[in-house]
Amino acid sequence: MRFTKTLLISIFFSFNLLGQECIHKNLSANFDFKINLKRIKTSEEFGDSCLVTFTISSKDQKVNQQLTFGTPYLYEDVFKNCENVRSYKTGVNKNNDVADNDYGDLIIEDFNFDSLDDFAIKNNSGGNGGPTYSFYVQNKNGQFELDNFLTNNMEFYPSIINKKKTTLTTFVHASAYEMCKKIYLYDLDKKIWVLKKKSFVKHM
Questions:
Q1: 3-class state of residue 145 by DSSP
Q2: Is 113 helix (H, G, I), strand (E, B) or coil?
Q3: C-alpha distance across the termini of the chain, in Å
Q4: pLDDT tens column, 127-148
Q5: Half-sphere exposure of 198 (CA within 13 A, CB side)
Q6: How far apart are the C-alpha atoms of 8 and 193, rounded to whole Å?
Q7: Is residue 108 part of a domain?
Q8: Following CA atoms 122, 167, 93, 29 in sequence, which dihedral angle do they give, to the nearest 10 degrees?
C-alpha cells in the first residue's frame, strides 16, 4: 500500500499539465469556436502528449457540439497563438502567407461544396510535408462529422480548392527537387471522394 501511494505521488509530480484556450467568434456567421489544449509534459525522451477539446457553439452561446482528440506531436506554439487561424467564409486572415503547407491551426472553409461551413483542425505538426489536419464537414442538422477520406487520405491542407470542378489539390514535398501533386475529386451525386490524379512537379 505504501509503495502504491508513493508511486502515485511520483507520477503526479512527474507530469506538468499545461492548459491554453482560444475563443473564436469571427470565423463563421453561424458558429463560435473554442479550442482548449491540455499539454502533458512528460520526459524529454517521449515529448509532450496533448489533449485537444474543440467546442462549437451557436451565436446565442448554446453549445452545439464538443469534439475531443489526442495527439503526441504538436509544436509548442500550436493552439497557443490564437491569431493563427483562417476563415475563407468571413475573410479573417485568408490572405496570410502560407509556409510549408501550414494554413493555421484552424481553418473554416466549404470542403464538400454544399455552401455550408466546414473546418479543418491541426492534428499533428508533421515533418517536411507540413502539418496534417482533421477535416470535419457539416451535415444538414448543423452537426460536424469527421470526413475520414480527407483526414486519412488527403491529410494535408489543399493549396487549391476548385469549386467549379469540385476538386481539392495538394502539393507535398517528395524530394529536394519535386513536389507530389494530388488532385481529389468529390462526386456530388455519389457523395464520395476519389483520387483523380497524382503527378510530380518541380518545386513551386
A1: strand
A2: coil
A3: 63
A4: 889 999 999 999 999 999 999 9
A5: 7
A6: 48
A7: yes
A8: -90
Please report, as a single letter, which amino acid is at residue 105: D
The ranges of the chain with pLDDT < 70 are 1-19, 42-48, 204
SS (H, E, C) 13-57: HHCEEEEEEEEECCCCCCEEEEEEEEEEECCCCCCEEEEEEEEEE
Backbone phi, then psi, for 68, in 5-degree steps?
-135, 135
* Distance from C-alpha of 8 to C-alpha of 155, rounded to nearest angstrom: 38
> Got the DSSP string for 52-86?
EEEEEEETT--EEEEEEEEES---TTTTTSTT-EE
Domain that holds residue 35: 16-202
Asked whether residue 192 is assigned to any structural domain, the reply reads yes
25: number of Cβ within 10 Å: 12
pTM over 0.85: yes
How many domains is the chain built from? 1
Instruction: Tell me the chain's radius of gyration from C-alpha atoms.
Output: 19
